[in-house]
Each structure stands twice: as structure tokens, then as C-alpha cells.
Amino acid sequence: MVSLALLGVSAQWLVAGAGWRRAPDGAAAGPLGPLSAFALPAGEGMRFEGHVVQRLDAGSYTYLEVERAEGERRWVVTLASSRGVRSRAGEVRVIAMGFAERFASKRLGRSFDGLYFAVVQPL
Known about the structure:
Blueprint: H1 4-17, H2 34-37, E1 47-58, E2 61-67, E3 73-79, H3 83-86, E4 91-105, E5 110-122
Parallel strand pairs: 3-5
Antiparallel strand pairs: 1-2, 1-4, 2-3, 4-5
């Protein structure tokens, strides 16, 4: 099981790596960056496991297409330096922090219908 502290640190690295910053103390409430604007879909769990069927490297990020046991495929983006990506694991655990119904990657020159922003761990 992943501790919340570990998830928090990983989330901070993902956010910091993307150049998103926290609002100063006392700033008005509102979206602090793209992850805060992308809530997980209703009924979606924060975690799932599956098999990596496709991997697209894009600079400091890696996009993974993960197939769950029931056959459903989902796209996930994480830091390329994460343990799950570095290990080139075939089986992974995804801990989602956010979701975009449609996300365009300028570096890859393509769009994703349904993309999870996540921490990825090898199983």
C-alpha cells in the first residue's frame, strides 16, 4: 500500500516538473494548475492495475496505455523518471491524481480521449 505521504511527494514532483506552482498564502481560491482543474470522473477509483500495452516517451513525461484485467484500456501520463517507467515494468499500479476528458500533447502531436495524470509503480 502506498502511503499518502509518498503520494503527496510524487504529486508535488509531477506538478513541479510541469512548471506549475502553488498559489501564495492568502491568494484567492481557484485552480492552481492543470491538475487542480481535472477532477477524477465520478465513480472512478484513484487506483487501478494493469498491463502496459503501449509506451510513448515525450521528454520528461511518459504516456502509457494500460490494459486492465477486464480488458478496458486507459491512457496514463507520468514523469519519465518514475520508478514504474524506469523499470520498464509490464505490470503496473496506477495511482491517479487527475483526469482530462481530452488532452492534447504538443510534443507528441496527438490528442488523448481520456488521460489520467498519475504516479505509476511496477508490480
